[in-house]
Amino acid sequence: MTSGRRLEHFPVKWTPVNLRKCDKQRTRALSSSSNRVESALVVRGISRGRTQGTIELGPLRFACALGRSGRTARKREGDGATPLGRFRIVGVRYRPDRQRPRTGLPVQPIGIADGWCDAPADRNYNRAVRLPYPASHERLWRDDGLYDIVLVLDHNTRPRMRGAGSAIFMHIARAGLAPTEGCVALPIRQLERLIARLRPGACVVVT
After folding, report:
1. What pLDDT is recorded for position 150?
2. Phi, psi of 92 (to 5 degrees)
3. Which of 96, 97, 116, 123 has the greatest number of beta carbons closer than 10 A?
4. Overall number of domains in the chain
5. Cα 94 from Cα 30, distance rounded (Å)
6. 21 CB burial (10 A radius; 0-12, 13-18, 19+)
7. CA dihedral 77, 123, 109, 19 (to 10 degrees)
8. Residue 2 in domain
């Protein structure tokens, strides 16, 4: 999620079984010696109130932007915080007029009429919607390039809880790793390097 008009997200939720599967996949990936594929992106904040942190995937480690309010275990709509937890990567959205990202994750182009509902009282809260849409929403087709590549996470999806946060993505960062509205963001080249190593079942772990 970023400031300004908002974009759409995909619903998903973690269970203990999913967490065990993700850990097993990560162990198998780390043991592979060639053409290595990783399955757990680990995001660490510098401190609880800071708006920047690091993201690690196997041997890769990059600086990243976090929410303007730091990180939180009690995410609420509009609080500007990045939620703590483990989230499955549902898929990658990208602008089709840009280069298609190289990744083993499911990939879907963003259309001009694609959005993401962020109105807690709406029946499609924290879901992708088609524009025009009557309730508050983010527009996924952005002019600022932040959503040229977007990893959709399964935060607050099954079940969806009103007001527990929407459109929590991993996307391209603003200049200087400026804070987000709750998403994790990093420069496009580093984001491309990370997603090239990911396959279905990959997780983002925010600690």
Report:
1. 98
2. -115, 130
3. 116
4. 1
5. 28
6. middle
7. 60
8. no
Residue 176 DSSP label: G
Place of tokens 């879907």: 108
Which residue do the tokens 């527990």 mark?
164
The pLDDT score that the predictor gives to residue 47 is 73
Which residues of the chain fall below pLDDT 70? 1-38, 48
**This prediction's pTM:** 0.82
**Cα angle at 77 between 71 and 78, to 5 degrees?**
75
The residue segments making up the domain with residue 96 are 16-206
Identify whether the C-beta of residue 200 lies closer than 8 Å to the C-beta of residue 105.
yes
Compute φ and ψ for 55, nearest 5 degrees: -130, 135
Is 147 a domain residue?
A: yes
Side chain identity at residue 114, one-letter code = D
> Which H or E run contains 122?
none
Sequence letter at residue 65: A
Question: In which residue are the tokens 């890769």 written?
Answer: 60
Residue 5, domain member (yes or no): no
Over residues 82-126, the pLDDT tens digits come to: 999 999 999 999 999 999 999 999 999 999 999 999 999 999 999
